[in-house]
Amino acid sequence: MLKKLKIKFVIIIMSIVTVLFLTTFGLIMHLTKENMERESIQMMKTLAFRPPVPAMMNRPDFIPEEINGIPKENNGIRLPFFTVKIHEDGSTETFGSDIFDLSDEDMISGLVKTVMDSKDDVGLLHNYDLRYMRDNEEGKTSIVFADVSSEKAMLKGLVKNLVIIGLIGYISFFFISLLLAKWVAKPVEKTWNEQKQFIADASHELKTPLTVIITNAEMLADQSYNETDKSGFAKNILSTSKRMRGLVESLLELARLDNNRTQIKHENLDYSKLINNCLLPFEPLFFENGLDLTTDIENGITVSGDKDKLRQAVSILLDNALKYSDSADPVVINLKHQNMTSLFSVSGSGDPLSKEDCKNIFKRFYRTDESRNDSGSYGLGLSIAESIITEHGGKIWAESENRRNTFYVSLPEKCSQVKTDN
Fold this sequence. Notes:
This protein has 422 residues and is of the alpha+beta class. The protein has two domains: 2-154; 267-412, 2-Layer Sandwich (Heat Shock Protein 90), CATH 3.30.565.10. The chain is 52% helix and 18% strand. The chain is built from ten helices and twelve strands. Strands 2-1-5-4-3 form a five-stranded antiparallel sheet, with helices on both faces. The protein has a five-stranded mixed sheet with strand order 7-9-10-12-11. Helix 1 runs antiparallel to helix 4. The two termini are 48 Å apart.
């Protein structure tokens, strides 16, 4: 899929580049041709209908651009031309550049006949590489013929240069599009790999309780077991089903958070009071597990957000500390001001986390110790907490030092009226 996506991206980019190149080069060719033709016609109008004096015509160094006092450097393109005047009696008079063989009367007659048969006063004779201009004045017809071979050569050179530039640009854009395709597909590839990993992990997590349920159901249907055994099988099925329901609910919660289907009801909340309320049901649980609990909660800290979602995130961190902290040191809960933000932390002693673990622990189904899989954790809680905090514009991260693992939550603080119903 990713390969096809990259190929489609490259095809789209190169199609756009092709259209741009063709349009740009076409305009350059058209405008250049029009400009050269306009200058050529203007020169013919300026010079051709002012026949040079015979003395000038007879000069061996005669150049048409120098007639009538117009210097060569002011005329742009050097344009060889000759003029044919047709008198009332049908006789013709030819004069112009000695580049042309004006003694060939058959050629001159053929050119004059072709021009006179044409309806256009200005046109091209492609077989002769000549441009003509016809003018009728006082019963006389003047026809100017100008050589356009230099124009054709210039246009041919322009086409050659544009083709070279186009090929270089096309190849350059092709390699650039490959790099862009790789860059654009990188987040898609990451998401795709995470999705595949998520499906594989979810399938694995669901497979185990389903196997337990099926096994216990088969034994429950076996008549060789007594009622006491069957009661135990039924209890196993019930407890495993509840665990699987919790897993499915966690998966659905993550899906809703990923798709932004849960509406965040932003309101100003007493964050200090919310955390204290979250601690109340956990205090007896910490006591039952032999864990000391130390709290340091600053009062009056206000944040904007959804109280239910923030309560869920705080509860996940407290539950994580309850499951994975040992009784060597107390679990420490802190909340304080820090540079216009609130910093909430949950710290407990336990197996130290590596730097990689501190990053990966928020990934779905990630566990640092697979042997502790029976703790009732699905490896989704911290992922849900991260999604909630991120959606509130905050940050969550973990640090480990001296066998103490600390989870931090930073949220922007609000300084406005507080809703105290938490």
